[in-house]
Write a structure and sequence with these properties.
Layout lengths: L1 H7 L6 H7 L4 H18 L20
Length: 63
């Protein structure tokens, strides 16, 4: 899964083409990216030193 996500975030890559090359549904891969992004954001300390908890729910992956 991690390798597929990494392939999707490369310049010029499309989620659909990467998913298709791995015989996966693009919506599934997009969901993996969204979950990975939310988990990463939730663990990053804010400027105040506090941690974001539950605030990443509405976060979207953007290239």
């Amino acid at each position: 899964m991690f390798q597929i996500i990494q392939a999707c975030v490369q310049p010029g890559a499309s989620i659909a083409s990467v998913a298709l090359s791995h015989h996966l549904n693009a919506n599934l891969v997009h969901n993996w990216i969204r979950v990975q992004t939310q988990n990463s954001i939730a663990l990053q300390p804010l400027l105040s030193g506090a941690y974001a908890i539950g605030g990443a729910r509405n976060c979207e992956y953007q290239r």
